[in-house]
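Input (structure):
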């Protein structure tokens, strides 16, 4: 929907850039309409959702006293964005969840119009502290606030209090526009003992992350310069800033600095509703961050996910020494559909995230606990696929499955020529879909397919030859995912930075009724699609492996599992 069509009801947040709508779309008339019953057809069975209603950003994920906590932007009254509180669920394994009462809801002058996104920091010897954005008026002017558990010996930390003494802890001053000043990060402690946080914002069109410092965690002062900024990127929502190890995949506590680490800065761009991250160096003495020259700093930068994945947040899990990333996957159907079905929004499967050995990008993989849901397994090995072959993977629940497959091909000679003008992977995927014959590829999985292929969501690769190297394209194409027309059905795509010397490519797809979440080449390029099949539902969904390229492709090994439903809320 364009901004203009609902200009009468939305005056506060709407801004346009190349026709892209910014901020959550706002429908005051639908915000407090609660469906009589919740429709199950497209509900996910192992991706996180609350029992009903709308969710968006993951907030304050943490591991504390043996329990994982996930908070999330939640509308308790309806299934479109609005009435925002912090929903709260707890888990022992990141997969099975129990929903509790909301942890934060508007109750003070400084958060009367909403408790927006934020993070948790666990203070040594003291316990967790939430930092969040409070909305103070109808114009969405924002301040930063804090909350602490009412009772630290409550195993689930169900109740949170907002001490009046120091709240709000930061207000917009000295030229900062209070309506674009939000989403505090987890804090890190410098060698000087002072805490630091980032708050997302912008000045004119320059996106930035303001840096605040504090000795005691309640009195915060803004530093003269933001930690980093980038021109023409617009509002930086939900910044995330953390160290990654140069010495292997272990995660690091957010305060770690030193020679053996790089830092990651991620921003969620309000204008495009996509995120990008850079890898760079944090000069902690000067509190400055500079991206490496291998990381593009702007709209075309590296992304965690080239599909539907936004407002993400990571945390360090000390129980397994790993960093875990959560991201929100919005619906691709209409607001009216969301009101009818009584729910909207899921969280992607939590992903372990680390720095690739080349140091140029991050790698992500579903947390190992997900494997606990795997049930019946089927396998295919050493099967050749010639052009036009479609092989069905039978014997598992194709609408609720985990599929891992590795492909090989014997030569790169047939790769199509790469046109250097093709800089936009998503456009290229739209142009060269799964049925457009190529040299090497398209080959991959056909998920959520109906028997006669009226509906399908292909996830596939295509290899091109450029003058100096090969270019690998990965696509997740929702164009034919549903016979329903009034849906957003993009053909998402990303390029894949891997060495093809072994002539092998691997893919993992997590299929869960209305989501196909895929990891290319061990998690180097990832794409999440939301889809709403009408025929390929439940036991009528099928899974195929296909090749539409002239070069033969071998399925080296395919393993697919029916997935058990997780306990969710
Ligand atoms: N969602 C929150 C904001 C954040 C945005 C409001 C990102 O705090 O900037 O629900 O999706």
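Output (sequence):
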């Amino acid at each position: 929907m364009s901004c203009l069509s609902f200009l009468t009801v939305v005056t506060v947040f709407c801004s346009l850039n190349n026709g892209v709508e910014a901020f959550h779309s706002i429908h005051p008339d639908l915000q407090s309409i609660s469906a009589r019953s919740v429709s199950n057809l497209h509900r996910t069975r192992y991706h996180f959702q609350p029992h009903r209603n709308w969710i968006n950003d993951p907030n304050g994920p943490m591991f504390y006293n043996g329990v994982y906590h996930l908070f999330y932007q939640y509308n308790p009254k309806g299934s479109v964005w609005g009435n925002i509180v912090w929903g709260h669920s707890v888990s022992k394994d990141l997969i099975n969840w129990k929903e509790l009462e909301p942890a934060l809801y508007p109750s003070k002058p400084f958060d009367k119009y909403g408790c927006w996104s934020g993070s948790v920091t666990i203070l040594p010897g003291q316990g967790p502290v939430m930092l969040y954005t409070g909305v103070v008026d109808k114009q969405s002017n924002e301040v930063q606030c804090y909350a602490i558990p009412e009772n630290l010996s409550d195993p689930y930390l169900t109740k949170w209090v907002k001490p009046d003494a120091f709240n709000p802890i930061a207000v917009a001053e000295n030229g900062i526009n209070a309506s674009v000043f939000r989403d505090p990060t987890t804090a890190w402690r410098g060698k000087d003992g002072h805490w630091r946080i980032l708050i997302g914002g912008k000045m004119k069109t320059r996106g930035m992350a303001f840096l605040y410092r504090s000795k005691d965690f309640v009195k915060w002062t803004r530093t003269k310069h933001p930690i980093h900024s980038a021109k023409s990127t617009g509002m930086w929502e939900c910044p995330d800033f953390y160290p990654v190890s140069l010495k292997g995949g272990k995660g690091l506590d957010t305060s770690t600095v030193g020679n053996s680490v790089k830092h990651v800065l991620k921003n969620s761009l309000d204008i495009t509703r996509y995120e990008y991250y850079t890898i760079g160096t944090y000069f902690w003495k000067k509190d400055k961050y500079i991206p490496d020259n291998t990381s593009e700093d702007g709209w075309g930068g590296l992304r965690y996910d080239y599909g539907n994945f936004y407002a993400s947040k990571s945390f360090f899990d000390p129980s397994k020494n790993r960093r875990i990333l959560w991201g929100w996957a919005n619906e691709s159907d209409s607001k009216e559909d969301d009101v009818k079905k009584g729910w909207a929004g899921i969280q992607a499967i939590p992903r372990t995230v680390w720095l690739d050995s080349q140091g140029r990008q991050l790698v992500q993989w579903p947390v190992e606990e997900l494997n606990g849901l795997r049930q019946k397994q089927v396998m295919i090995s050493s099967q050749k696929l010639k052009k036009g072959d479609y092989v069905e993977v039978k014997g598992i629940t194709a609408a609720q499955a985990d599929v891992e497959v590795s492909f090989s091909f014997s030569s790169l000679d047939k790769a199509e020529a790469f046109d250097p003008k093709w800089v936009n992977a998503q456009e290229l995927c739209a142009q060269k879909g799964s049925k457009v014959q190529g040299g090497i590829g398209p080959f991959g999985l056909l998920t959520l397919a109906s028997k006669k292929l009226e509906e399908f969501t292909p996830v596939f690769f295509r290899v091109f030859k450029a003058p100096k190297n090969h270019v690998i394209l990965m696509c997740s194409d929702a164009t034919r995912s549903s016979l329903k027309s009034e849906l957003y059905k993009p053909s998402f795509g990303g390029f894949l930075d891997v060495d093809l010397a072994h002539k092998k490519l691997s893919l993992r797809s997590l299929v869960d009724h209305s989501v196909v979440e895929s990891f290319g080449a061990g998690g180097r390029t990832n794409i999440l699609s939301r889809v709403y099949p009408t025929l390929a539902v439940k036991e009528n969904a099928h899974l195929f492996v296909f090749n539409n390229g002239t070069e033969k492709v071998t399925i080296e090994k395919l393993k697919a599992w029916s997935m058990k439903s997780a306990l969710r809320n």
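Notes: The pocket of 2,5-dideoxy-2,5-imino-D-mannitol is lined by residues 56-57, 73, 84, 116-117, 133, 182-183, 237-238, 268, 311 (CB under 6 Å). Residues 376-563 form a domain with the Jelly Rolls fold (CATH 2.60.120.560).
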